[in-house]
Task: inverse folding
């Protein structure tokens, strides 16, 4: 119930226009293996879909310059902070509707798990820990905790973002149920320990 309040506060803090459009959060290091090449390639296409961005991070100059230019061109739709501000990262997790994480590789990944806990639906590439922790939405069974795509391809990512936007607007009940599932996923060591215990039990017969 607090998501709308958090979203309104986030847009105000970043100086962005208020509205019902989905806000996509990005909190990451600006390096290529985080999938920023994909984002860069179709960024303006996503803007034209009607989405907004709340971006926090720093790293390679090519990406800092790119996001700075996008913020300059679309100040009402792109909120950008260069650097790392822990309090702002929490506000983005809490106030965004979706969290984009199209990593080229990701052995574990924490950001998608934090996003899930805040009820911010992850859009991830199916690699490493991202594939392990985000269950793709299934509209026929109304299951899943996020959206995913397989190949490291900007157009495939774009199609997934477009599908997520469709569900956000046209299947609001499904979306709200997905948010509830996302917030209830348990990645604690208590759960992991049980899986290790089962593995050891199986190994020793």
Result:
């Amino acid at each position: 119930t607090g998501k709308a309040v958090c979203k309104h506060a986030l847009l105000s803090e970043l100086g962005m226009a208020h509205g019902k459009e989905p806000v996509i959060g990005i909190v990451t290091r600006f390096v290529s293996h985080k999938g920023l090449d994909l984002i860069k390639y179709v960024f303006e296409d996503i803007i034209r879909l009607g989405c907004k961005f709340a971006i926090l991070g720093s790293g390679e100059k090519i990406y800092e310059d790119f996001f700075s230019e996008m913020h300059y061109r679309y100040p009402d739709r792109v909120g950008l902070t260069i650097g790392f501000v822990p309090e702002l990262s929490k506000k983005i997790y809490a106030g965004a509707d979706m969290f984009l994480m199209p990593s080229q590789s990701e052995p574990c990944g924490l950001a998608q798990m934090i996003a899930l806990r805040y009820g911010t639906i992850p859009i991830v590439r199916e690699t490493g820990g991202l594939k392990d922790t985000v269950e793709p939405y299934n509209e026929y069974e109304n299951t899943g905790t996020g959206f995913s795509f397989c190949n490291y391809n900007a157009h495939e990512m774009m199609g997934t973002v477009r599908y997520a936007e469709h569900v956000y607007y046209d299947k609001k009940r499904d979306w709200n149920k997905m948010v509830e599932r996302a917030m209830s996923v348990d990645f604690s060591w208590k759960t992991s320990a049980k899986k290790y215990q089962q593995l050891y039990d199986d190994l020793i017969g």
